[in-house]
Specification:
Number of helices of chain A: 11
Shape of chain B: globular
Strand content of chain B: under 5%
Largest sheet of chain B: 2 strands, antiparallel
CATH topology of chain B: ABC transporter involved in vitamin B12 uptake, BtuC
Number of strands of chain A: 2
Helix content of chain B: over 70%
Radius of gyration of chain A: 19 Å
Number of domains of chain B: 1
Strand content of chain A: under 5%
Shape of chain A: globular
Number of domains of chain A: 1
Radius of gyration of chain B: 21 Å
Distance between the termini of chain B: 20 Å
CATH architecture of chain A: Orthogonal Bundle
CATH architecture of chain B: Orthogonal Bundle
CATH class of chain A: Mainly Alpha
Helix content of chain A: over 70%
Structural class of chain A: mainly alpha
Oligomer: heterodimer
Chain lengths: 294, 341
């Protein structure tokens, strides 16, 4: 039982971070129907930019995080303006290839500059471990979980109760209708990319606190796909629940199966879940079932 | 298809021919002669590059049939290459089967794997299908590492027959297969199955309404694609001599898709152009970077990926129809040159 709790706590923390990263993906998909394969690269860039500002330049944490968000927002803005805008209305394959190409470009550039070396943030979270029902875990998990939950809540609030959130939901409904009632559809697209990049960057920062910044961070971008498929591509609650479920299942399964299978379950288990979802419920828990006409 | 003026056709067979004029026959003959003579005046570095490029060409041609013709996106082509490589090696090493049989066996085995992971295509398409092939990529790589007789993360050594020790013999086998594969891919697009693939790509619901068995043909496309991948993988294992899961990563699958897009989706010549262009480009940049050690090792190791990503982005923005479209424009231009009015 203690063992289970140990795995579950690590899993839920990871799950909260998955939710955060997946939220950026869903935001872009909802407003512009663009599938962003480069979400993991925002995580990677976030980790290394945070490392640059906080560890290399020695800025205080809060200033470093603000600068990180600003940098990532700029990155999202530039990407949307230069590369995604020309693709509006193109077939889905072009969009997938474009974001894949972007992810290669960003990933290669980051590794070229940093050499993919492992970096850590200065210790600013108390190290005393926490005990819950016999399970012992470090405080970092609790903090990261808390921050991720707050950010997810903030994004949900933004989406549901602010003017720009309303614009985004309207754009998601129909581009033409939104345009006709005076919403600037283009700037809504840009806003979605800016927010997604910023959220991904913070996700990278939090992951960097837990496990150190390295080139592996970009792999979390691919873990987003099982999450959003479980929750449904268009659904924000889906992304939140999907992230938690995938994180939990992955860690618990890895905890129990790794000794039997010889390791590596974490890498493959989310994708096995994904295949099962695709076979039995391809549009996820809360996704819209598409009706096609000729 | 546009032809030079003065070419007249009086039979259906003439109209359907791939090679129309004497000049085209001549050029084809010169190309084949050139390919035959190539290994005798290339040094071993460039011979290796040509062999590797032709293996990649076989893999990309398979993807061309699945993605370019049938419109089903696959992010797992490299894993199917791996299935072919492991199957052929294990057949050779454990069952002592002769080489041709193990290559054919590997191709069929890989094709069946393709059918299994193509099954979701019966229910979903587009992004969802891309996701199921992405899952295939990860699951197959996991199997390579963890299935007991596949040698784990160290991989396995490939038993290479005596007569393939020389690179020139290997070149002739691989290049011959690549030429046959190209001809086969070109001809598939002119058969009934090829036209059905294009109909499915353009609108699968409409295709079903006019009486096409959608499930059969989608799975057929997956089978042919993985068959090509299996052959390419088996040949690849002979070329490198030691296979390991790292040779068949997601990155390679993305490279294959990218080559297809840069060349031009949906045309066989596009696949050939894309493979040659991207292979030469990546080899060229990495050679160039290794010539300049002052840039540091990390630049040399990542410059290929950066350039490839940049090329993909630029092509999608400025020439989404790819190199083959440019080639058509060029042909039109020189046929009427210098009297373009």
């Amino acid at each position: 039982m203690t063992l289970f709790l140990q795995f579950a706590i690590a899993g839920i923390t990871m799950g909260a971070l998955y939710s955060l990263i997946a939220l950026g993906f869903v935001l872009i998909y909802k407003s512009s129907k663009i599938l962003n394969f480069a979400q993991g690269e925002f995580v990677l860039v976030g980790g290394y930019v945070g490392l640059f500002f906080i560890t290399k330049l020695g800025l205080p944490i809060w200033l470093g995080v603000v600068l990180l968000v600003a940098t990532l927002a700029l990155l999202g803005f530039v990407i949307e303006k230069l590369t995604i805008r020309p693709l509006v209305g193109q077939p889905i394959l072009a969009i997938i290839i474009m974001t894949l190409g972007l992810s290669l470009l960003i990933n290669g550039t980051v590794i070229c500059i940093t050499g993919s070396e492992l970096g850590t943030f200065p210790q600013f979270i108390p190290t005393a471990p926490i005990k819950i029902g016999g399970a012992v875990f470090s405080q970092v998990y609790a903090w990261c979980f808390g921050i991720a939950v707050i950010l997810v809540a903030l994004s949900t609030y933004f989406f549901l109760y602010t003017r720009y959130g309303l614009y985004m939901r309207a754009t998601a409904e129909s581009h033409e209708v939104a345009q006709s009632v005076g919403i600037k559809v283009r700037s809504t697209f840009t806003l979605a990319w800016v927010i997604a990049a910023a959220i991904g960057g913070i996700g990278g920062f939090l992951l960097g606190i837990i496990m150190g910044v390295s080139g592996d961070l970009s792999e979390f971008g691919l873990k987003v796909f099982p999450v959003v498929l479980l929750g449904g591509l268009e659904s924000i609650p889906g992304a939140i629940i999907g992230g938690m479920v995938i994180g939990l299942l992955e860690n618990v399964a890895a905890g129990y199966l790794d000794p039997l299978m010889g390791g590596g379950v974490t890498e493959v288990f989310p994708y096995i879940i994904m295949v099962i979802i695709l076979i039995f419920k391809p549009y996820g828990l809360f996704g819209l079932t598409r009706i096609e006409r000729i | 298809m546009e032809l030079p003026c003065g070419v007249s056709k009086s039979t259906y067979a003439q109209d359907m021919a791939v090679v129309h004029t004497r000049t085209q026959w001549g050029l084809l003959g010169i190309l084949l002669a050139l390919l035959c003579g190539l290994p005798f005046f290339l040094n071993s570095l460039w011979l290796g590059i040509v062999i590797h490029t032709s293996i990649v060409l076989i893999a990309v041609l398979g993807l061309h049939i699945l993605t370019g013709l049938c419109g089903q996106i696959s992010l797992g082509q490299a894993a199917f290459l791996g299935v072919g490589a492991y199957a052929s090696t294990l057949l050779c090493a454990k069952l002592n089967s002769p080489l041709p049989i193990s290559i054919i066996g590997a191709a069929i085995f890989s094709g069946c794997f393709g059918i299994i992971f193509g099954l979701p295509a019966l229910r979903v398409k587009g992004f969802y299908l891309a996701m199921s092939t992405l899952a295939a990529q990860f699951i197959i790589i996991y199997l390579f590492i963890h299935v007991r007789f596949a040698g784990g993360s160290q991989g396995i050594f490939v038993p290479i027959p005596q007569f393939l020790e020389s690179k020139i013999n290997l070149y002739f086998i691989i290049m011959g297969t690549a030429v046959l594969a190209t001809a086969f891919a070109k001809n598939i697009s002119r058969t009934k199955a090829g036209r059905i693939f294009v109909a499915i790509r353009d609108n699968d619901l409409a295709a079903e309404v006019i009486g096409i068995r959608l499930s059969y043909y989608k799975l057929l496309a997956f089978f042919i694609c993985s068959l090509y991948a299996g052959i390419a993988g088996a040949l690849y294992s002979l070329y490198i001599g030691h296979i390991n899961y790292e040779h068949f990563s997601l990155m390679d699958s993305i490279w294959y898709l990218g080559m297809l897009v840069v060349g031009g989706l949906g045309s066989t010549s596009g696949a050939v152009f894309g493979v040659i262009f991207i292979s030469l480009l990546s080899k060229g940049t990495s050679l160039l970077a290794s010539q300049m050690p002052s840039l540091g090792p990390q630049v040399a190791s990542t410059i290929g990926i950066i350039v490839f990503g940049l090329i993909l982005v630029l092509f999608l923005i400025f020439e989404p129809r790819g190199l083959s479209h440019r080639w058509e424009i060029f042909k039109k231009f020189y046929r009427i040159w210098p009297f373009s009015y």
